[in-house]
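User: I'm putting together notes for a lab meeting next week and I want to include a structural view of one of the chains we've been expressing. I don't have a solved structure, so I'd like a prediction I can at least talk through. The sequence is below, exactly as it appears in our construct file.
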Amino acid sequence: MKMNKQCLPCLVNQVVKMASMTGCLDQDELFHQFFAYMSQVDFTKTNPEIIGEVFAMVKAYIHHDDPYYQLRHDYNQMFLKQLNQLDNQIHSFEETVKYAIVGNIIDFSPLHQNVKQDVTKYFQNIDQLSLTIDHIEDLKADIKTSSSLLYLGDNCGEICLDKLLLKRIKDINPDITLYFATRGATVVNDSILEDAYQVGIDEYATIVSNGDSSLGTVLSRVSEEFLEIYHKVDIVIAKGQANFESLSEEKKNIYFLLMVKCGVISQYIGALEKSLVCLSQRKRG
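Assistant: Thanks for the context. Below is the predicted structure for the 285-residue chain, given as structure tokens.
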């Protein structure tokens, strides 16, 4: 889906947040560069692609290639410490999907400043949570009959819950070949190769970079290696809004797992904000 005008305030807020979090000393000049970029931006691009370009501009301006490193590390470690406990308290594939979606609450963009207590609260009340769009049974059936699956990760921290879901997928179909894709370069708090190896994703899946620094998965920008995997697999699981925004028009067997975090996505897929969603692309038509 292309950039929506309602995304503009969030994008501006994102840049303000980036400037603050990265310790940028001359924020006025950075903002001038940002607005100069926006004055010529191609609005047929997706929001994740535009944010990726803006974040690359911020990194170049502050001369720091990984300004959110400590945040990524801290959230990965926070979830790793809980992983065994979470694994023991989850009793079904359906519950694992729900936990993986709840993990998508982790988001450092300006309009979603959730802290550790918020994540814990969601986990404590997870039995009371239901999916607004629930295509889990379709996903489960496809996993049983498929030979390969590509899992598109999203944020740090939640990548640990992705690991649990990969484990359950292997339980359903031990012979399935799994791939787990990260971003090709740092972009906000999204997971990169380092994060995937740090939390042990390679126990269950082959870890690959998508070769791009967009916030989602922009197929016109990813590497040939990633594209080859994307086109050959039977199923794709795509985590988070950015992956939905960049792949929503694709004609492939994709399952989108996300928490609806804004009105634009809410209207687009027909689910209320803060809804948990497991959405089959094929059922969207």
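A couple of points you could mention at the meeting. The longest helix spans residues 69-89. Strands lie at 131-134, 148-152, 177-182, 206-209, 235-239, 254-259, 276-280.

User: Perfect, that's what I needed.
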